[in-house]
TrEMBL record:
EC number: 4.2.99.18
Organism expressing this protein natively: Kushneria konosiri
Record-level Gene Ontology MF annotations: class I DNA-(apurinic or apyrimidinic site) endonuclease activity; damaged DNA binding; oxidized pyrimidine nucleobase lesion DNA N-glycosylase activity; zinc ion binding
Protein name: DNA-(apurinic or apyrimidinic site) lyase
Stated family: Belongs to the FPG family.
Alphabetically ordered keywords of this record: DNA damage, DNA repair, DNA-binding, Endonuclease, Glycosidase, Hydrolase, Lyase, Metal-binding, Multifunctional enzyme, Nuclease, Zinc, Zinc-finger
């Protein structure tokens, strides 16, 4: 399932063809949204943003289309007049003078006014988006040390979308590895240096995944593997999905455990469990 960086990349792609352009035609598959088609035609798109796994398409009159890809939704961008093939069902089409953006298979689509988004049943429960909301290292440090999160084990906290939106399973393993922390640590167990490093890696690893289409491994480690012809699944991440393979940093075999019913990968040498018994 795509995580925050993948959804941010979709927002970037949509923004290139929609933001700053006037919607000349719009189509909703759902009857309760059809009355809004005429209202949005002629409106200029002002922004396409992501928040966790949701997309927010903003218009100059203050309306925002909320959409969530869910498990099977995908966006298709093509020249206007062309239609996407395949078996997926179209749910939404936004057309400018030159391009159309089609949302296929997703059913979670609604129209809001920007001032009402704080009341959205999904968005209202999310923490800030690491790639959209100008989050800083200091912001993360303060959030880690706050009473709401400081007693939570990192293995569960990082997947909690109330903490920060967009961190999914592969990012959890990668962030903890690069921070050098075992998942059993709680923010309250960390000294100032460890807390600062964790905050830096939360931002750094997420941004690397966004820039490199889901790749979180360091260039110095992945490039020799690419040159050797190894598959992407082998060099994409530093630890995730690499159980029994050697750690890039120390050579110790990577281990896989289950935390919050989901798989987590770590290096037992680089991420030693030194939490209180």
């Amino acid at each position: 399932m795509p995580e925050g960086p993948e959804i941010r990349r979709i927002a970037d792609r949509l923004g290139k063809v929609l933001a700053g352009h006037t919607i000349e035609d719009i189509w909703f598959a759902f009857d309760h949204l059809k009355p809004f088609e005429t209202r949005l035609v002629g409106q200029r798109v002002t922004s396409v943003d992501s928040w966790g796994k949701a997309l927010l398409t903003g218009f100059e009159d203050g309306h925002v289309i909320y959409s969530h890809n869910q498990l099977y939704g995908v966006w298709r961008i093509m020249r206007r007049g062309n239609e996407p093939g395949g078996r997926r069902s179209p749910r939404l089409r936004l057309s400018t003078a030159t391009h159309s953006a089609w949302l296929m298979s997703a059913s979670d689509i609604s129209l809001w006014h920007r001032e009402e988004l704080a009341e959205h049943p999904f968005l209202s429960r999310l923490g800030p988006d690491l790639l959209t909301h100008d989050v800083t290292v200091d912001d993360i440090v303060n959030r880690l040390q706050g009473s709401r999160f400081r007693r939570r084990r990192l293995g569960s906290l990082l997947l909690d979308q109330h903490f920060y939106a967009g961190i999914g399973n592969y990012l959890r393993s990668e962030i903890l590895f690069f921070a050098g922390l075992h998942e059993r640590y709680r923010p309250m167990d960390l000294d100032a240096t460890q807390c600062q490093r964790l905050a830096e890696k939360i931002l750094e690893v997420t941004a690397r995944a966004w820039r490199h289409a889901g790749v979180t491994n360091l260039e110095v480690w992945r490039e020799p593997m690419i040159e050797a012809g190894e598959p992407r699944a082998r060099w994409r991440h530093a630890v995730f999905n690499r159980a029994a393979l050697p750690c890039h940093a120390c050579g110790t075999p990577i281990e896989r455990i289950t935390v919050t019913s989901r798989r987590l990968y770590y290096c037992p040498c680089c991420q030693q469990d030194k939490t209180p018994a």
